[in-house]
Amino acid sequence: MSKGHHVLVVDARPETQRALISVLGPEGHELVFRDGPAAQLLGPTEAFTLCLLELGAPRPRTYEVLRAVRVHSGTTEAPFLVIAAPGQASEIAHALDVGVDDLLFSPLDPTELSGRVAMHLGWRRSSARVARRQRALAAMIDITQALVSSLDIQEILFTVVRRIADVVRVDRVSIVLVPSDLDDTGFVVAASDDAGVTNLRLDLQKYPEIRHVLQSKAPLTIADVGTHPVLDGVRTSLPPTKPSSLTLLPMVFDGAVMGVLFIRAQTSKGALDEQQVGFCQVLANATAIALRNARILHGLRAETQRDTHARLEAEQRVAALKRYADVFESAADGIVALDDSACLLYANPGAYALLGYQPQDLPLGFPVYLLISGDDQRKLLALQNRFARGEFPRNVDLHIKRKEGQTITINCSFSPLHGREATVLLSFRDVTEARKTQEELVHTRNFLQSLIDASVDAIVAADMRGTIILYNEGAERLYGYTAEDALHKMSVKRLYPGEGAREVGRMLRSKGHGGVGRLEPVRMEAIDLHGNIFPISLTAATIYEDGKAVATFGIFTDLRDRVRVEEQLAQAQEKLALSEKQSVVAELAGATAHELNQPLTSVMGYAELLLRKVEESSPAHRAAQVISSEAQRMAEIVRKIGKLTRYETKSYVGEQRILDLDRGSEDEPESKS
Predict the structure, then answer these.
(1) In the predicted model, what is the mean pLDDT of residues 103-116?
(2) Rounded to 5 degrees, what angle do the CA atoms 121, 127, 128 make?
(3) Which of the four, 69, 508, 529, 643, has the lowest number of CB atoms within 10 Å?
(4) CATH code of residue 386
(5) Which residues are 367's β-sheet partners?
(6) Residue 378: is its pLDDT beyond 50?
(7) pLDDT of residue 134
(8) Is 658 in the same domain as 596?
(9) How far apart are CA 431 and CA 436, in angstroms?
(10) What does R_g of the chain's alpha carbons equal in angstroms?
(11) pLDDT higher than 90, residue 491
(12) Residue environment code for 538-553, b if the CB has 16+ CB neighbours within 10 A, otherwise e
């Protein structure tokens, strides 16, 4: 370790000072002890290579001292070590915040103290060397940038040789370029002492030193032209005013030697030292790069113009698309961009709001599949496979887990992002409530469909043109047409004979059958597939949407069974009425016969008595015979009345009918079993 370092010690307790002196003093370090206020007032010329500070109380003042010393011009590059008591371990974070490089705990261990100080001083020396090299390279880069700032090759080359000659103070610096397709031929393209030298042809057979550098690709220094072996073959042909020393450096680009930087110096100068050679070598390589760049740039000028034109067009497209970017940012729908691994590349505010996350919760590169719920992760994998085949589906439902744990349903549409391969643009919206409503509607529809299908009655609906749009199983049984034959193919007019359908429409439009748009039960006739006409009871209504009639429907009840029952009932009622009449007639006849028998018997008795008492020649006898005959006839009528068992009639005068005593008193024929 180097000796004699200047060490600043701040706020050290006496025992700490003694420990530092005993360890660092013998190693040659100069220790300067200061308290906090004095350390804060260091002079501008005071510089230190290492700083030690002991943490004391009160702590805020200690940190203020530490910050003040840390920014002092004489200590900015010095390592800072803090000495803390074992109970101050929690202060490490505070110390690091103000720029401390290391931490020691008291009581100080001599070996640890010596090792830590040596380590930090070694780091400081290494950092200083690196800094010096960086400053040197920065200066070299500045020169190189100046060389490559022009596209004029001749200007570049003359600038290089003139600046090199000025810096290393030599007589002549020239650049010799050697085309790869020409053997033993070079060209002096620039010389520091003659701006007019351009493309001066050289026969490299006469310049063995140039050939040597071209072959070895390494610098060559000839301190004495008169004795160096490389020039043995051409020494006699050198001019009388030959230089005393030569330095040749290869101009290398991408592993190939483009030429040679040729430096000549008279006796007073001598050969270049190592630093100058390094400086010239850097500039030689920079010149090679500049030459290469200049040639490339000249060749690419036309392409650059095309690129400029393309860039302008792209900028115009970007300007045109900017308003769409604003739309993305303000869109209520979520819009995200995904890479081929379904990782997040972009998300608009709407996406974060719908998912319930903040941008910091879903950083760029976040795997979106982690938000997908359950089986839908496999669905996303299947979608990625479709993306690879160039298929981008729309209206795909996925279940997403929001930040608060709620699972929502989003409806997604995918599309490729133009200009970005393997990038998919995803737009989505929350359809959770819509899907719940849809499920409820489907359930209700299925229930109503089951109810319609289960109905015994026929239920038929038609649009306003009369085309059947609903036809249940009851209608199939009633009319004989299948649903396949009727739905969207057949007119409702075929369900009624004649003008029945038109009559139904008229009744629906009138107010006299339950109100406009309603038809209370009415008896009509229908006609089936086979042309059979039968009675039905029809209830109908008009369906409206937003006040506009869009369809009609009817419920058709088959009345054939009811009509048969009604006929049977009428017949039964007729028989009952007849039976009641017969019963009344029988009762009346019995009563009448009973009441007439007594007076009739008397009449007949008196008539017989008169016949016996009156002479046959007497007119009275004739009258008595008539009385007796008519009484006999009346007795026969009474006998028939008494035997009445049925109500039978016969025509009397015109359409009038009277009771038929003969038929009514006849015995009923025995029924055949």
Answers:
(1) 87
(2) 90
(3) 529
(4) 3.30.450.20
(5) 343
(6) yes
(7) 61
(8) yes
(9) 9
(10) 64
(11) yes
(12) bbbbbeeeeeeeebbb
Return the pLDDT at 1.
38
| Contacts for 588-594: CB closer than 8 Å, 24+ residues apart | 589/641, 589/642, 589/643, 589/644, 590/642, 592/638, 592/641, 593/638, 593/639, 593/641, 593/642, 594/642
Do 617 and 660 lie in one domain? The reply is: yes
Whether 457 shows a pLDDT value over 70: the answer reads yes
Same domain assignment for residues 549 and 583: no
Q: How many domains does the chain have?
A: 5
Residue 210, number of CB atoms within 10 A of its CB: 20
Q: Structure tokens of 232? A: 């043995």
* Amino acid at residue number 668: E
216 and 114 in a single domain? The answer is no
Residue 78 in domain: yes
* Residue of higher predicted confidence among 147 and 374: 374
CA angle 639, 644, 646 (to 5 degrees): 165
Burial of 555 (0-12, 13-18, 19+ CB in 10 A): buried
What is the spatial distance between Cα 192 and Cα 61, in angstroms, rounded to a whole number?
A: 64
pLDDT of residue 609: 83
Domain-ending residue, one of 299, 324, 348: 299
Angle at 215 between CA 210 and CA 217, to 5 degrees: 90
In a domain, 324, yes or no: no
Tell me the mean pLDDT in the region 524-551.
92
Q: What is the pLDDT of residues 46-68, one digit of tens each?
A: 888 888 888 875 556 777 777 88
Question: Tokens in use for 218?
Answer: 């390494």
Q: What residue type is assigned to position 501 of the chain? A: A
Q: Whole domain around residue 100: which residue ranges?
A: 6-131
CB 542 within 8 A of CB 552: yes
DSSP 572-640: HHHHHHHHHHHHHHHHHHHHHHHHHHHHHHHHHHHHHHHHHHS-TTSHHHHHHHHHHHHHHHHHHHHHH
Of 558, 591, 610, the residue that ends a domain is 558
d(CA 505, CA 522): 13
What average pLDDT does the segment 142-146 reach? Answer: 59
pLDDT at residue 447, as a whole number: 85
